[in-house]
Amino acid sequence: MPVLTVLLAALVTRLRGEDPERGDVPGWVMITVMTAALVLAILVPFREAIVTAVQNALSSVTSGGG
């Protein structure tokens, strides 16, 4: 019985959110949104240059570099 009591206590503590290892979910959400915003901020003005650079790189690889 003591093992069951310990397991239930650990489960209740975890469900309450008192676990210091749980992490900061809103912080991760903010990092993800900010990263997406940075990608869009870079992609929108330089889209044509990025597409051209990728096409050139792929064509140089597929044509044997020459």
Short description:
The protein is mostly helical and 66 residues long. It has helices at residues 2-16, 25-62.
Give helix and strand order, one letter per element, not per position.
Answer: HH
What proportion strand? under 5%
- The domain tally reads 1
What would you call the structural class?
mainly alpha
Largest pleated sheet: none
Q: What is the total tally of β strands?
A: 0
Number of helices: 2
Helix content: over 70%
Mean pLDDT: 82
The low-confidence runs, each spanning 5 or more residues with pLDDT under 50, are none
**Cα end-to-end separation:** 75 Å
In angstroms, what is the radius of gyration? 25 Å
What does this structure look like?
This protein is mainly alpha-helical and 66 residues long. Helix content is 80%, strand content 0%. The chain has one domain (2-62).
Layout of secondary structure:
Elements: H1 2-16, H2 25-62
